[in-house]
């Protein structure tokens, strides 16, 4: 499969980049869900969430591997050994890393508070007074930063962001209620755009009643906050998880919802529990697109998501055989339809559509992330290391959440040396790419595995885990 199929020429973007050749990338993952993070009742969990978002900054370097002259602004310092590994793996290029002195979680505000970093951004515009500014997500904090830079007389080009008057599209379509409203509105035009039967409410007492009723009738229920993160804000109740009588079931759900403030601050979506067909894309297919500044919609890739039993996204499985041709055509058409709605509303940038393959043969949309995603760095790495036909030439697995055994907290150099026998080889086009050094301090290894076949990729992944187990 040619992953550019369905897209138009990129000449307009290329010409724009010639005018704005200095690229600055701001990694602002936490800003995408800042309201959710602020609503977390447990202070330690809130702190940990901010830290994990910040420490994924070095992983995000991989999603910029196509930029030849880059200034990368990270919430946290990046291990120099990892930077060297990254530069060697993806080819030497100009790379400057800036880190604001203050780390609050809102990196765009941290940049504005740091005269040295902010003045460096303005200085990078040089005499032409032009910059290209990219970000993980188009947050309101990012738009404030863009405005402040423009106040200094710099022309800022944001090819992956909507204009300010259309920035509402990010939070609206990126929320569980927003995509549900789009699906309901579009059922006649795009019958493949369906979601699990569900309701939206704004009160935890009502949510507990509705969820209990659905659980008793259907022997399962799913509750979601309007916009959660890394598995938080999702509750999956399967047969036997809750009491079988209505009142006891309602009280049990209410107690759980009452444990975190975010259930009381945001809309709650109550959905039917779907029976997942794991034979189709691992049960959780996904497809990612990019809407260019011109409004053109480009298909980037489709994949299967690796999802835990608790509903936590872990990584992706990437190859043309992940889903069959019929399902590929269906989800591609449906994805383009959603892209058309986003583009007409003024959104520009990356987005994906996540789905559940059900045993009844239907494909249900679960959400759309209106930003770069947990698979974007895998896609960019595959393009750079394998080439545009990576969907055919390689079988790829990624994992952002692999827990190291025991209390293991190796530094990057130690881990890199230990994994030398299985690391990616440019000659064979197979092996492991270590995707983050910072996450090691959390006891987590983020990685990508490339194999000539699915069997090879799984064997390489197993060898990697065996080496780690013996450290």
TrEMBL record:
One of the record's GO molecular function terms: ATP binding
Keyword Nucleotide-binding among record annotations: yes
Keyword annotations: ATP-binding, Nucleotide-binding
Ranges of residues in domain ATP-grasp: 185-399
Keyword field contains ATP-binding: yes
Name of this chain's protein: ATP-grasp domain-containing protein
Species of origin: Candidatus Wirthbacteria bacterium CG2_30_54_11
């Amino acid at each position: 499969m040619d992953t550019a199929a369905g897209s138009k020429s990129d000449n307009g973007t290329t010409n724009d980049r010639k005018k704005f050749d200095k690229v600055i990338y701001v990694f602002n993952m936490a800003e995408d869900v800042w309201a959710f993070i602020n609503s977390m009742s447990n202070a330690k969990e809130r702190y940990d969430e901010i830290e994990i978002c910040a420490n994924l900054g070095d992983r995000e370097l991989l999603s910029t591997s196509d930029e030849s002259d880059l200034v990368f602004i990270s919430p946290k310092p990046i291990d120099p050994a990892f930077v060297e590994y990254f530069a060697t793996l993806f080819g030497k290029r100009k790379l400057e890393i800036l880190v604001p002195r203050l780390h609050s979680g809102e990196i765009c505000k941290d940049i504005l508070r740091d005269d040295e970093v902010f003045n460096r951004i303005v200085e990078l515009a040089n005499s032409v007074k032009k910059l290209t500014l990219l970000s993980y997500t188009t947050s309101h904090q990012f738009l404030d930063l863009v405005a402040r830079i423009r106040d200094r007389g710099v022309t800022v080009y944001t090819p992956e962001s909507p204009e300010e008057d259309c920035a509402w599209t990010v939070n609206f379509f990126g929320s569980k209620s927003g995509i549900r409203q789009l699906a309901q509105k579009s059922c006649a035009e795009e019958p493949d755009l369906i979601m699990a039967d569900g309701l939206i409410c704004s009160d935890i007492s009502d949510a507990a009643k509705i969820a209990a009723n659905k659980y008793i009738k259907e022997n399962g229920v799913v509750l979601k906050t309007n916009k959660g993160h890394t598995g938080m804000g999702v509750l999956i109740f399967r047969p036997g998880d809750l009491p079988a009588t209505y009142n006891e079931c309602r009280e049990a759900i209410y107690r759980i919802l009452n444990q975190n403030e975010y259930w009381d601050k945001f809309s709650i979506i109550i959905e039917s529990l779907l029976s997942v067909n794991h034979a189709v894309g691992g049960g959780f297919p996904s497809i990612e697109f990019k809407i260019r500044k011109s409004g053109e919609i480009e298909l980037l890739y489709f994949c299967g998501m690796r999802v835990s039993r608790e509903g936590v996204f872990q990584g992706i499985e990437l190859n043309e055989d992940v889903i069959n041709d019929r399902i590929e055509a269906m989800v591609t058409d449906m994805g383009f339809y959603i892209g058309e709605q986003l583009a007409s509303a003024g959104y520009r940038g990356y987005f994906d559509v996540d789905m559940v393959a059900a045993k009844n043969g239907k494909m249900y949309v679960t959400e759309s992330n209106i930003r770069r995603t947990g698979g974007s760095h895998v896609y960019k790495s595959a393009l750079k290391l394998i080439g545009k036909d990576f969907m055919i030439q390689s079988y790829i697995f990624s994992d952002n959440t692999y827990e190291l055994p025991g209390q293991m907290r190796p530094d990057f150099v130690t881990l890199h040396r230990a994994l030398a026998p299985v690391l990616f080889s440019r000659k064979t086009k197979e092996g492991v790419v270590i995707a983050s050094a910072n996450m090691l301090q959390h006891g987590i290894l983020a990685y990508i595995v490339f194999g000539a076949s699915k069997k090879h990729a799984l064997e390489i992944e197993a060898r990697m885990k065996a080496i780690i187990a013996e450290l």
